[in-house]
Design brief:
6 strands; globular; alpha/beta; about 210 residues
């Protein structure tokens, strides 16, 4: 039996990539000589990585320090954009959270910047379902370490993690937590412990 559920954000709870692409392209126009050609599909292939790694791909021509400055500007702009124009959550998500939150404590761990999870919770109005959250922007640690930190902080004995990429699966293996693959998301997984096709499927699994 499980005693808690930890969620990824992008590709698991919502798809913000088109909105984020719009915000990041605005920064490219204002701050660089790069063509503003970032798309939602571009970001689907990058989300889940740590931000410095995303910056290294998108801003390869610039020195490392400039890459980090640009990605910080992009993140600040995406926060403003998402609060003004919230992305849509996945179908059946709120129904699933309402049911699951009555059975288990729910948490979020994502490889995002500080403030992004708070933006998600505010923009969607779903904050009441989650008890805590962590990200590298809060701790300086990657996903596996943050899963372990949430587990230790709240005394969780049998959590599962819901995510949508091979990176999520790898982090779960490192943290010693079963992986639930959200097949509707951005990535792929090999032989996950569980697979769901929509958020509501979690209510049947657990």
């Amino acid at each position: 039996m499980i005693d808690s559920i930890i969620f990824d954000v992008d590709g698991t709870l919502w798809d913000s990539t088109d909105t984020v692409a719009r915000a990041w392209n605005r920064i490219l126009q204002q701050e660089t000589d790069l063509e503003p050609t970032i798309t939602g599909n571009t970001l689907k292939g990058l989300f889940g990585r740590l931000l410095p790694d995303i910056a290294a791909v998108l801003f390869e021509k610039y020195p490392r320090e400039r890459q980090l400055t640009l990605i910080d500007l992009c993140c600040a702009e995406e926060h403003r954009e998402l609060l003004a124009h919230p992305a849509a959550v996945y179908d059946t998500l709120e129904e699933a959270l309402e049911i699951l939150s009555k059975r288990y404590p729910l948490f979020i761990v994502s490889n995002c910047q500080a403030g992004y999870i708070e933006v998600f919770l505010e923009a969607t109005g779903l904050g009441r379902y989650f008890q805590d959250h962590l990200c590298p922007g809060d701790t300086g640690q990657a996903k596996a370490e943050n899963i372990a930190a949430i587990t230790a902080k709240h005394g969780l004995k049998a959590p599962v993690y819901v995510g949508d990429t091979a990176g999520d699966q790898k982090a779960c293996k490192k943290a010693g937590v079963p992986f639930v693959f959200a097949s509707y998301g951005f990535g792929s997984a090999e032989q996950p412990e569980y697979t769901i096709e929509r958020p509501l499927d979690l209510t049947r699994l657990f």
